[in-house]
Amino acid sequence: MAKEALLVLDMLNDFVRRGAPLEVPANRGIIAAVQREIKKARRKGNPVVYVCDNHTHDDKEFSKYNWPPHGVRGSEGQKVIEELKPRAGDIIIKKTYYSAFYKTKLQAVLKKLGVDTLRLTGCLTHICVLFTAYEAALRDFGVIVVKDGVADLTRDYHESALRIMQNTVNIRLE
Fold first, then answer.
1. Per-run averaged pLDDT (10 residues), the chain, 174 residues
2. Assigned domain for 106 exists
3. 29-52 burial code (b ≥16 CB/10 A, e <16)
4. Sign of dihedral through CA atoms 161, 163, 169, 170?
5. The whole model's pTM is what?
6. In angstroms, what is the C-alpha Rg of the chain?
7. With contact defined as beta carbons under 8 Å apart, do 68 and 40 qualify?
8. Distance between CA 38 and CA 46 in Å, rounded?
9. Total tally of structural domains belonging to the chain
């Protein structure tokens, strides 16, 4: 029987709040869907894993990729938004790049929990969600992307990423 974990990607103050450095207005529109998925995971006894950007002040992502500083360690902006606040027993994975797997402990944590399927929520659909979905599929996880639980900077980026993922082995849209 499959064991599923819910991943909540980068639903941080720096991506959600009005006026935040990397504000994604569409993120505010998915909060209810992510809350629904968290409640569903907890009811089923599935792990809830928060994957959070965790950058240094001088992270190369800010200069090399021209992103404004965001998710800086120890800042208010790096915290998960209050509406989705982790509870005791939830797992927090800190990442410094787009994929939740890249140089993190996510694979080891999922293996220890016996997880073989991931439900993805959060942002950005065409970057962190897409990179995480692809890497999870390459690592033989089943992947479900919750369509109303992911958001992006533009509708075009969002829809393009969903189309790409829809045509990938081991990735399913729901």
1. 91 97 96 98 97 90 84 92 97 96 97 97 97 96 97 97 91 96
2. yes
3. ebbebbeebbeebeeeebbbbbbb
4. positive
5. 0.95
6. 15
7. no
8. 9
9. 1
